[in-house]
Amino acid sequence: MAEPATVELDAQYRQLREECGLVDRSERGKLLVKGSEAAEYLQGQLTNDIEKLEVGKSCYAALLDRKGHMQADMRVLRPSGALYAATAHIKRTGTEEAVIWIDVEAVALEATRRHLQTYKIGRDVEVEDVTAERTILSLIGPRSAEVAGSPPLPEHSCEELTVAGIACLAVGTAGGIDLIAATAETERLFAALRDAGAAEVAPEAAEILRVEAGTPRFGFEMDTSTMPAEAGIVERAVDFEKGCYIGQETVARLHYKGKPNRHLRGLRLSAPAPTGAVLRLGDREVGTLGGSCVSPAQGTIALAIVRREAEPGSELAVGEDGVTARVVDLPFV
Fold first, then answer.
1. What does the pLDDT look like over 273-322, one tens digit per residue?
2. Could you tell me which residue, 78 or 1, shows the higher pLDDT?
3. How deeply is 163 buried, as exposed, middle or buried, from its count of CB atoms within 10 A (0-12, 13-18, 19+)?
4. Sign of torsion, CA 293 296 299 301?
5. 169, 180 in Cβ contact below 8 A?
6. Quick check: helix, strand or coil at residue 169?
7. Which H or E run includes 327?
8. Measured between alpha carbons, how far is 161 from 76 in angstroms, rounded to an integer?
9. Statement: the pTM of the whole predicted model exceeds 0.85
10. If you classify domain 29-129 with CATH, what class do you get?
């Protein structure tokens, strides 16, 4: 018989797949970059084309070091300024400033904030940490737009939305809609979304969808030793037609002239194993286990960035407890 926690997680998984689940992602780090040179500044720091972003649009990007290793991955938004009137929307010399929103994994917040503060010297740019002031609630599933009271939002679009009288920034995602609001409104917003038909689910349930989709996550599969090509995020995160940015030379050289020594792969495990477990092909260490889960549809699966020789079909040893893993292509579904 399945453990009660597993039964509950299976029900939450079905909620995300068939209805609408509500996940609190407020632990993510949140920054506002403001000023007349904000977009130009970020253009020289991040991998995607920030200057090309129109108001109401977003993109996925990465922050690299000079050797092309990732320091963070992030969502970058160009919302209208109205939502930030209370905390960040300011004017200088009668001209409305650009306000650019960035959210990152919590483990990457300090490095991202410190980098953006350090390199802005001499520019009309301010970096404001609004992590404590803003909440992010994710609606995931086919009924997400209905629950939010919004038309379906394409991925990478954002617009202001009022939910039960609460001002939100609604952001289209691959799985539904994220709602960004003032932290003080979190409980009211939660209640309104539950009343509209969303069921609160644990982050572990949403992790199953992420692993099934083969989407890497900073702090799990990706870290400061990872290059974008190794994580398979180049197509989403890198613009090769924009101007220079930190780490560009390495990224471009690997893309046009080389092959990464490591690749993001899926793993089908013989039994659950912890994140960070060493992966071996024969006697050779080829990587460490990233995020893993027990999927109701796919069984025990995981993601990992592994060396090139661990090709799909390879059998790996996982840790020291006799667990094995078969390497497969992504996505699982």
1. 999 999 999 999 999 999 999 999 999 999 999 999 999 999 999 999 99
2. 78
3. buried
4. negative
5. yes
6. strand
7. strand 323-328
8. 18
9. yes
10. alpha beta
